[in-house]
Specification:
Elements (H helix, E strand, L loop, with lengths): L6 E5 L6 H12 L13 H4 L5 H12 L2 E8 L7 H14 L3 E5 L20 E5 L2 H20 L5 E2 L3 H6 L3
Parallel strand pairs: 1-2, 2-3, 3-4, 4-5
Length: about 170
């Protein structure tokens, strides 16, 4: 991982779940909230590239500056192989801490929806909510890297007291 990695990379099913990504962008822009993430990519610029090879090369470039990888998990995320699976593989290969965000509100790994590739990998699984996503962005990088150095793997999740801290 780059010494200057400071971005948050968000992967998701662009056909079905883009509204959740757009809401995250809106949270970030809202002056009345402290929610913030440094996005690794702008989808509008990315779509102007046509070939799969070119898109993956651009995504790989953006992953170089990534400190934490967020995967928004919806109903069909586990079935996406062309880009989402590749993005997950890249995050794993690069040792980027992974935050798996369940769009259905589940606070731990949803074994029915989690992409199989991610099930045994080190990741924190959380519900889709501004406060808990922000908490994970601020805290999981250090925890994930620490767990990885201890050769820990598998699904992690935050206990109820973390959610209660944010009135969730």
């Amino acid at each position: 991982m780059s010494t200057y990695a400071n971005k948050t990379y968000v992967a998701f099913d662009a056909d079905n779940d883009i509204r959740y990504y757009r809401l995250m962008e809106a949270w970030k822009k809202n002056d009345n909230t402290s929610f913030n993430f440094f996005d690794a990519h702008d989808l509008n610029n990315l779509m102007s590239y046509s070939s799969e090879e070119t898109i993956k090369a651009k995504l790989a470039e953006r992953l170089k500056n990534t400190k934490v990888f967020i995967l928004l998990i919806g109903d069909s995320t586990k079935n996406l192989y062309k880009f989402v699976r590749w993005e997950i593989e890249q995050a794993i290969k690069r040792g980027i801490p992974i935050i798996a965000v369940n769009l259905n509100g589940k606070r731990s790994m949803d074994s029915n929806l989690c992409p199989p590739l991610l099930k045994d990998e080190l990741a924190v699984h959380i519900s889709y909510n501004q406060k808990i996503i922000e908490h994970a962005i601020e805290n999981w990088e250090a925890s994930g890297l620490s767990y990885k150095s201890e050769n820990k793997s598998g699904a992690y999740y935050y206990k109820d007291d973390i959610y209660k801290r944010y009135n969730l």
